[in-house]
Amino acid sequence: MMNLIPHALVIGGTGMLSGVCTALAAKKWNVSVIGRSKNKFKPLMEQHPEAIFPIQADYDSEKIFRLVQRAIDERGTLDLIISWTPNHKALERICKLNASSAHFQLLHIKGSKRYFHDTEIDLPENCAYQKIFLGYMGEAGETRWLSHEEISKGIFRQIGSTETASIIGQIEPYEARPQ
Ligand SMILES: NC(=O)c1ccc[n+]([C@@H]2O[C@H](COP(=O)([O-])OP(=O)(O)OC[C@H]3O[C@@H](n4cnc5c(N)ncnc54)[C@H](OP(=O)(O)O)[C@@H]3O)[C@@H](O)[C@H]2O)c1
Asked: Atom of ligand 1 at shortest distance to CA of 13?
């Protein structure tokens, strides 16, 4: 059954992905957010107490699976997962918890090094998968890393897209990246 209110999970959503969480909340999504520090949830909760649901736990712990299952039980299966975690085993298990969803999108955020040497993950068939690589910006002959706002906006644009990979900013030439 489809959720009346779409449900997103943002893994590592209290740092540079905060803007994606608030943009989803503003579009009337329910947004479950994983992070460890209670303080980092405060700005999100202040802006959208009705739509942000903290999952305050370590994604390297067993507890995370119980808490994500509880989020699914309470707010429905996940329509979208946005993941910024190096723990691919945990990500795979979280996706499997969502097996009863008819279809969901996983936006897998990766640093630029992953563009050249990546590892694949094992995903259920109901998952539409997109890698999003974080690059750098080149302006007037200078380069700089992406701002959090650019990262969040770039990710938000990919929600619902059928691309399998995308880049925010640029990755090549790799030697031109900021030091
Ligand atoms: N290419 C670019 O332009 C660009 C731009 C920005 C960043 N980056 C890359 O991103 C890195 C900085 O990112 P960051 O990782 O510090 O990002 P961040 O988004 O600021 O923080 C990581 C997020 O994950 C959570 N988190 C971390 N470990 C966790 C755990 N074990 N369990 C649960 N949640 C956890 C954090 O909250 P808690 O700490 O409260 O758990 C926070 O929400 C930089 O080193 C850089 O490589 C690249």
From this structure: 43
Within-domain flag for 2? no
Q: Is the CB of 59 under 6 A from ligand 1?
A: yes
Q: Number of C-alpha atoms within 13 angstroms, CB side, residue 18?
A: 16
How far is ligand 1, taken at its centre, from the CA of residue 1, in Å? Answer: 34
Q: How many Å lie between the centroid of ligand 1 and the Cα of residue 18?
A: 11
Length of the chain: 179
pLDDT of the residue at 35: 98
How many domains are there within the chain?
1
26, 3 Cβ separation under 8 angstroms: no
| Per-residue exposure over 77-104, b if at least 16 CB sit within 10 Å of its own CB, e if not | bbbbbbbbbebeebbeebbebbeebeeb
pLDDT at res. 82: 98
Q: By three-state DSSP, how is residue 100 classified?
A: coil
Report helix, strand or coil for 102: coil
The finding on whether 133 has its CB within 6 A of some atom of ligand 1 is no
Q: How close is the Cα of 74 to the center of ligand 1, in Å?
A: 27
Q: How confident is the model at residue 1 (pLDDT cuts 50, 70, 90)?
A: low
In angstroms, what is the span from residue 16 Cα to ligand 1's centroid? 7
Per the domain annotation, does 50 fall within a domain? Answer: yes
Q: Which residues constitute the domain of residue 99?
A: 7-176
Question: Around 157, how many Cα atoms within 13 Å sit in the side-chain half-sphere?
Answer: 12
